[in-house]
Amino acid sequence: MPNPDPTQDVVRDSPQGVAPDPLGPRDPRDVPRDLPPDATAGEVLAPYLHARSADFLRGLRLHTESGAGTGGAEEAARTLRAAARRISGTLHTYRPLLDPAWADQLRAELAWLSGTLALEHACTSRLVRLADALARLAGGGTAATAAVPAARAGGDPEGSRGLTVGAARAGALLERQLTLARTRAHSAALQALGSARFHAVADAVALLASEVPLGPAGAARADEVLDAPAAVVERRLRDAVGVLPLARAAAPYNAAALGLTAGESQDAPWHQTRGLLRLHRYAAEVLRGDGVPDPVLYEAARALDRHRDAAEAAAAASAAARTPRIAPATAYALGVLHADQRHEVEAARFAFQRAWSRTTAPVR
C-alpha cells in the first residue's frame, strides 16, 4: 500500500483559503494539561487522537444526515477533511511511538480520502477566485496589467474595451473547464464515500476513538520521548524555510518574480513549507494541550494557504490560455489574469515573510 507524504496534503479550508478551521479551536479538555510526572507518551497521544476521531465521526454523521449538494454536506466534508488531516499528521509525526504498520496503513487511507474530498472544493474555490479577479480587472484593472509584456498589450487595438470583452469570454471558458472538473470531482467524492474502502476507513477511525495501537516507545515517559518526534518536524520546517528566498519576498508584488511563465517552477519549495508548517502546528497541539492555535504560526499558515490558492489559480489561467483557437482578446485577458494571480503569489510570500520573522522560538 502506498505511503504518501502528508506534507503533500491538498486539502483546502475555505474558498479563499483564509477561513478558520471548520473544527474550530481545539477544546482544552482534548489533552490533559496537568499530567503526573510519570505519565506515558500514550497517555498524551491517546486523548488527542480520540478527540480527532470523534470529530471525524461527527463529520460522518453530518454526511449521513444531510443530502448531497446541501450546505450540510459541505460542512460534513470540511469536518471530515479537517479531522482526517489532523489524524494523518499526528500519525506521521509520532509514528515512532505507535504501531508503525497500523499507522502507515491508516495514514495512507486518510490521505486518499482527504485528497479525494478536496478536489471538488478546490475546483469551486478556484473558479470563485478567478471569476472575482476577472470582474475586478475588467472593472478597472490593477498593477497586474503592467506585468503583461508590452508587445502583447500593444497588440490589443481595443485597449480597455478589449480587456472587458476578453474577460467575459475568458470567464466563460474558465467556467466550462472548471465546472467540468468540479462535476467529475463531485462524482468521484460520492463514489468514494459510498465505497467499501471508505467504510473500512471509518471503521478504523471508530476503533481509534477508543483504542490507540501503541508501539513499545509509547509506554515510555512522555517527558522523555514525546518532544523528539516534534523536534524532527520542526527542524525540517526550519530547514525548508531556510532555503526560501525570503529576501526577495521582503516586499509585496515583487516584479522580479513575475511573468507569464516565470515563477511556477519556484512554487514547489513554498508548497513543501506549507505542508511542514501544518505538521508542526498539529504537533504543537499535542504537546501544548491547550487547544489554542499559536497566532503567529496561524498567520504564517494562512499566508501559505493564500500562496497555494493563487499559484494554482494562475496555473489554471495559464492552462486555459493554451486552449486551441481562442480569440486574441480572450488570450489577452487570461494573460492579465495570470499576472494578477502571480502578483497574489508574491503578496502571500511577503505576508509569510513578515509572519515568520516573528517566529523566533519553538512552539511548546
TrEMBL record:
Gene3D superfamilies: CHAD domain. It comes from Streptomyces laurentii. Residues 38-361 form the CHAD domain. Residues 1-43 are annotated as: Disordered. InterPro entries: CHAD_dom, CHAD_dom_sf. This is CHAD domain containing protein. Residues 24-36 have a biased composition (Basic and acidic residues).
